[in-house]
C-alpha cells in the first residue's frame, strides 16, 4: 500500500484531507502531522519524520497563512513558506517521494483583467505572497518532481475562514460593509482536497505549477451576498472600496486564475463556486459549526 504523509494536518485543508482519507483506506495509508510533531523549518526533524513514515507522497497543507501579520513577522513567514518548503522538497527528492505543495493566487499583483496562466509573470505585493512565491521556487529548484497547486480564497466547514466569519458577523451585526472591488475565485477546501487526491490517484508523473480553484471569479461583496442568501440571513450588506477597508497587507485587485492546465493534464474539472459554497453552508447548518 502506498503511504501518504500529510503535513499541516490540523489546518483547514488538513482537516478536509482527514475527512476524505477514509474513502481511500484500501489504497493509501495516511499519516497526518501537526507542527508539534513536524516543524518543517527544522531540516533534521523533516529527515527523521520521513525516515519513520517513508512516504511515497507528501502533501504539504502547512503554511504561515496570516496575510496581515506576515507584514511584520517577515522572518516567520519566510521560514515556513519558503525555507520549510525547500526542506520538504529536498527530503522528498532524497527519499523518492512526490511532493504536492499548495501555493496561492497572491503570488500575482492583480493588475490585469485577464485570468493568470501558470507561467505568467509573478509579482507579489505583500510579504505573504512573496514568501509563498519563494517557496514555489525553492520547491522546484530542490526537486523538479513537485506538483504545486495555486489556490485562492479557501474556505470550508473547518477552522477560521471568510465564510465562517461572515456567518458569525451575520448573527451579531445589523449591517456590514464588504469590499466590492477585489476579484478572486472562492474555493471550497474540500474540492482542493479532492483535486489533490485525484492527482495522486491518477498515477501520472506530470509536475510543475497548476492552478486550482472554484470558478468563475467574484468579489468579496458578491461572495458575502451568496453566503447571506444560502444561510437565510436578513443582514444588510453594503459594497465598500479597498480604500474604505485598509489592511496592513495589500491584496491583489484581480487575481483570477486560468484553470485550463489542470483540466487538460489531469482531467480535473473545477466546480462552480456557488454550488461548492451551498454544500459548505448546508454542512455548517447540519453541524452547527
Ligand atoms: N486560506 C486561504 O484563503 C488560502 C488561499 C490561498 C492559498 N492558501 C494556501 O492553502 C494552504 C492551506 O491553507 P489553510 O487555510 O488550510 O491553512 P491553515 O488553516 O492556516 O493551516 C496551516 C497549518 O500549517 C501548520 N503550520 C504552520 N507552521 C508550521 C510549521 N513550521 N511546520 C509545520 N506545520 C506548520 C499549522 O499547524 P498547527 O495547527 O499544527 O500548528 C496549521 O494547522 C496553504 O499553503 C495556504 O498558503 C490558503
Automatic annotation (TrEMBL):
Keyword line: NADP, Oxidoreductase
Gene Ontology biological-process entries: dTDP-rhamnose biosynthetic process
Coiled coil residues, start to end: none
Pathway info: Carbohydrate biosynthesis; dTDP-L-rhamnose biosynthesis
GO molecular function terms listed in the Swiss-Prot or TrEMBL record: dTDP-4-dehydrorhamnose reductase activity
PANTHER family: DTDP-4-DEHYDRORHAMNOSE REDUCTASE, METHIONINE ADENOSYLTRANSFERASE 2 SUBUNIT BETA
This protein's name: dTDP-4-dehydrorhamnose reductase
Organism for this UniProt entry: Epilithonimonas mollis
